[in-house]
Amino acid sequence: MKLTTEHVNGLTCHVADRLEHGTNPDAVVILCHGYGASGTDLVSIGQMLLKHSKLTSVQFLFPEAPLSLEDLGMPDGRAWWPIDMRRLQMAAALGSFRDLRNDNPPHMAVAREMLVGLIRQWSERTGVPLSRFVLGGFSQGSMLATDVTLQLDENPAGLVVLSGTLLNEEVWRVRAAHHKLLRVFQSHGSNDPILPFAAAGWLRDLLNQAGADVEFLPFSGGHEIPLEVLQRVAVFLNEVTAKRSV
Questions:
Q1: How far apart are CA 246 and CA 244, in angstroms?
Q2: CATH code of 38's domain
Q3: Which residues are within 8 A (CB) of 22 and not within 5 positions of it... i.e. 6 or more apart?
Q4: Helix (H) / strand (E) containing 149
Q5: What is the number of domains present in the chain?
Q6: Within 10 Å of residue 172's Cβ, how many Cβ atoms?
Q7: Is residue 146 situated within a structural domain?
Q8: 196 — alpha (psi -120 to 50), left (phi > 0) or beta?
Q9: Across-strand partners of 62?
């Protein structure tokens, strides 16, 4: 198993695969980390998926978010866009529901363009079409992956939403109508103190109503990625990246 680092479209990307030197992948999985995590936060998950699955010809990309959180006391922390931490902490302390359906973070468009540029350049480099890319992530990273997927003109192979939520509902609802039959795997903890479980249901329902094929896996836990979720992600990736006979 190889792990290398590439710089593409302004993003530092950690690349993991089991490909022989000089061999292009059959499919590409891009996983985006959450707010405050390091750029390598999900790399170990990708390595685990590669080790315990049939994804021998699949390449994983783990882009680092462009914003540093060093000034906020998180030297290794990165973010795709700023978050109002006071609002988050107050909501957690009061146990109040965080309804983000009308939120459209200004920096999300910038992050979207960076990720779309990464996809295009990696597709050109490897010859892998968009229909063979899986986009996903955890928390804020899953929100970005969802936004990018819905803004694309065609369906990627799949979307993985780990502990995400519904943002920018008006726009997402319109764009989701263009992505019928999109394969989606979504998971969420029933006791998530940061992004409420009910809001994950709103996102699931929006996608289902638009005609997407959503597999929703709830679990007893918080804002995390438990083993049962990883096991199902591996199955999902095997399904959506499997070569289909013509």
A1: 6
A2: 3.40.50.1820
A3: none
A4: helix 140-151
A5: 1
A6: 22
A7: yes
A8: beta
A9: 14
Terminal C-alpha separation, the chain: 30
Token digits of residue 236: 């999902």
Cα separation, 110 vs 148, in Å, equals: 11
Whole-model pTM: value is: 0.94
Inside any domain, residue 197: yes
Radius of gyration of the chain (CA): 17
Beta carbons within 8 Å of 214's beta carbon, 6+ residues apart: 184, 185, 186, 204, 207, 208
DSSP 3-state of 225:
coil
Sorted by sequence, the CB contacts under 8 Å of residue 156 that are 6+ apart come out as: 130, 131, 133, 134, 135, 149, 182
Q: Are 143 and 165 a contacting pair, CB within 8 Å?
A: yes
In a domain, 40, yes or no: yes
Residue 246 lies in a domain: no
SS3 content of the chain, % helix, strand, coil (to 5): 35, 20, 40
In our burial notation (b when 16+ CB lie closer than 10 A, e otherwise), range 179-192 reads beebbbbbbbbeeb
126's tokens: 């490897």
Look up the domain containing 202 and give its range: 2-71+80-241
Per-residue pLDDT of the chain (246 residues; tens, 9 = 90+): 899 999 999 999 999 999 988 899 999 999 999 999 999 999 999 988 988 778 889 999 999 999 999 998 999 999 999 987 677 667 666 666 667 888 899 899 999 999 999 999 999 999 999 999 999 999 999 999 999 999 999 999 999 999 999 999 999 999 999 999 999 999 999 999 889 999 999 999 999 999 999 999 999 999 999 999 999 999 999 999 986 643
